[in-house]
Amino acid sequence: MKPPDQIVVIGEPDAVFGFSLLGLPGVAVADSQAARTAIQKASRQPEVALILVSETWADLIRESEQEKLAGGGPLIIPIPSSQPVGAERGLRAEIQRLLGISLKD
Fold it and tell me: What's the mean pLDDT in 72-90?
């Protein structure tokens, strides 16, 4: 059996177009339901090793979904969106979200 070797991009049309210029296939999505469907579909394809997801839709990937995929599914990596997502949250809020701890002044 051949190991997975394909990269798929899921995100805004601009991101998908940009990566397509590099030869990477992608799925342009406009809402969270389309993004979730595209992520699930790409995750089930045995040839996919890496899924690049725009930050806008990265929150759809919960720990439970990552744990399911950890058993041999593709690695899912957020990529910057054309609209600031993480920057609006602020560093403290992002640390609290990721680690579950609160930083005090």
Answer: 70
